[in-house]
């Protein structure tokens, strides 16, 4: 047997033998607040849909305008969080959530060319809104700074990855409007808008 | 280069799905998994819905031109309008009958390669979309998680359209057109069967 492989196997065996149940109560440790901030939006379907739709929208518009969101969106999230902790904001009504999803979906479906400034303002506003909503999880003993760092990291990672995905997938500039890649991105916009429309109906009905 | 790009895409898709799957483990929103599953399965378990959605996709591909891209983009929205009508508990006349009729008519349109102006086709499909959306939307408020249910049913319907459009692409190959017409005829026959049963139930 290759000596290097043997060493590696032995080390692995040793590590395995020493491993105990991953009893790291990291969630209750101090650093846990970071993970709480990062995970909370990812476990909330509204956040997942809105962030994904924003990322797709920015990515489909091109790298030149999209790359600003890498900075603007996490900043918006932090501002919203700070705003909500400093002042007692009223809870966002489900209708506003639904209308936001609807508008994002329609913008994606119509494939409008949104100017860079407007896109940045939209991303910042959405970040402030969702940051304020995510402040609802804050307990008195939660470390605000760690929670904000987690939230901003999650926002940064999600928005960057989805924009990159949309950028690599989107219709090439030279291709006709009817190319299937363009249609696929717009169809996802249609789906998102449909979800928003139904949620708006539901919040009006209840 | 191509392979690398594909790998990147696959990796991103995997990551995206991992991110979007996590809600099922959510403790903040109980019932997301259940709502998503029931929403995804609702259009797939009703055979009358399923065949009509596939037929819409095939017909769109057959008509070609604008229809092939307007359909997947606008259909979910019109269907969501129907769902809102269902959520608001506004009744539509003889829903089972119209849904069976939609499968029959769309199946016939595919089988006989009926070519109508785009506006007429859009109007026909829109009426059926409202009835189909109504049927799904009526169950939305009572589901474990309405948002997850909505996501599930929109995605399932969109994927059924994609199946239809892909089937419609068979027309590019010799003999493919015949297969499509055969599928259309089968859909029409099933639609006819559902029509007869719903008539039997209402009579």
Briefly characterize the structure.
The complex is a heterodimer of chains A (206) and B (203). Chain A is mainly alpha-helical and 206 residues long.
Shape of chain B: globular
**Termini gap of chain B:** 64 Å
Number of helices of chain B: 8
Work out the strand percent of chain A. under 5%
Helix and strand sequence of chain A = HHHHHHHHH
* Amount of beta strand of chain B: under 5%
**Unreliable stretches of chain B:** 18-28
The average pLDDT score of chain B comes to 82
Largest interface: A-B, 38 and 45 residues
CA-CA gap between termini of chain A: 69 Å
* Tally of discrete structural domains of chain A: 1
- What would you call the shape of chain A? globular
CA radius of gyration of chain B is: 18 Å
- DSSP, total strands of chain B: 0
Rounded radius of gyration of chain A (Å): 21 Å
Low-confidence stretches of chain A: none
Written account of the structure:
The complex is a heterodimer of chains A (206) and B (203). Chain A is an all-alpha fold. Chain A has one domain. Helices cover 75% and strands 0% of the residues of chain A. The termini of chain A are far apart. The mean pLDDT of chain A is 86. With 203 residues, chain B is mainly α. In chain B, 78% of the residues lie in helices and 0% in strands. Chain B has 8 helices and no strands. Chain B has helices at residues 2-21, 32-45, 47-63, 67-87, 95-111, 118-137, 146-168, 176-202. The longest helix of chain B has 27 residues, at 176-202. Chain B is globular and about 50 Å long. Mean pLDDT of chain B is 82; it is low at 18-28. The A-B interface holds A 40, 42-46, 48-49, 52, 109, 158, 161-162, 164-165, 168-169, 177-178, 182-183, 186-187, 189-191, 193-195, 197-202, 204-206 and B 5, 8-9, 12-13, 15-16, 19-20, 22-23, 25-29, 32, 68-69, 72-77, 79-81, 83-84, 87-89, 137, 140-141, 145-148, 150-151, 154-155, 158.
């Amino acid at each position: 047997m290759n000596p290097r492989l043997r060493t590696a196997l032995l080390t692995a065996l040793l590590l395995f033998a020493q491993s105990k149940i991953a009893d790291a109560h990291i969630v209750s440790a101090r650093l846990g607040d970071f993970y709480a901030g990062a995970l909370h939006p990812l476990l909330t379907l509204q956040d997942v849909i809105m962030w994904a739709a924003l990322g797709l929208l920015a990515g489909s518009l091109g790298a030149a305008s999209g790359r600003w969101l890498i900075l603007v969106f996490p900043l918006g999230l932090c501002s919203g969080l700070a705003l909500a902790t400093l002042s007692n904001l009223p809870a966002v009504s489900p209708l506003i959530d639904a209308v936001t999803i609807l508008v994002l979906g329609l913008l994606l479906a119509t494939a409008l060319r949104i100017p860079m400034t407007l896109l940045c303002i939209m991303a910042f506003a959405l970040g402030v809104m969702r940051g304020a909503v995510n402040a609802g999880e804050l307990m008195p003993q939660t470390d605000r700074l760690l929670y904000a760092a987690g939230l901003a990291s999650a926002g940064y990672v999600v928005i960057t990855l989805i924009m990159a995905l949309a950028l690599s997938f989107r219709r090439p500039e030279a291709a006709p409007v009817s190319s299937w890649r363009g249609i696929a991105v717009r169809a996802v916009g249609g789906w998102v808008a449909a979800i928003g429309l139904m949620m708006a109906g539901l919040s009006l009905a209840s | 280069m191509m392979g690398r790009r594909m790998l990147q895409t696959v990796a991103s898709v995997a990551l995206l799905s991992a991110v979007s799957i996590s809600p099922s483990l959510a403790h903040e929103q109980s019932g997301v998994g259940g709502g998503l599953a029931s929403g995804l399965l609702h259009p797939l378990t009703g055979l009358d819905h399923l065949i009509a959605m596939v037929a819409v996709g095939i017909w769109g591909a057959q008509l070609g031109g604008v229809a092939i891209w307007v359909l997947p983009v606008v259909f979910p929205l019109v269907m969501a309008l129907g769902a809102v009508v269902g959520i608001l508990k506004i009744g539509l006349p003889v829903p089972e009958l119209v849904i069976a009729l939609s499968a029959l008519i769309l199946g016939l349109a595919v089988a006989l390669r009926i070519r109508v102006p785009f506006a007429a086709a859009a109007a026909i499909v829109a009426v059926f979309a409202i009835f189909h959306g109504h049927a799904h939307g009526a169950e939305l408020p009572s589901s474990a998680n309405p948002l997850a249910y909505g996501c599930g049913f929109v995605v399932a319907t969109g994927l059924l359209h994609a199946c239809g459009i892909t089937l419609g692409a068979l027309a590019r190959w010799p003999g493919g057109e015949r297969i499509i017409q055969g599928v259309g005829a089968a859909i029409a026959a099933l639609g006819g069967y559902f029509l007869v049963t719903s008539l039997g139930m209402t009579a």
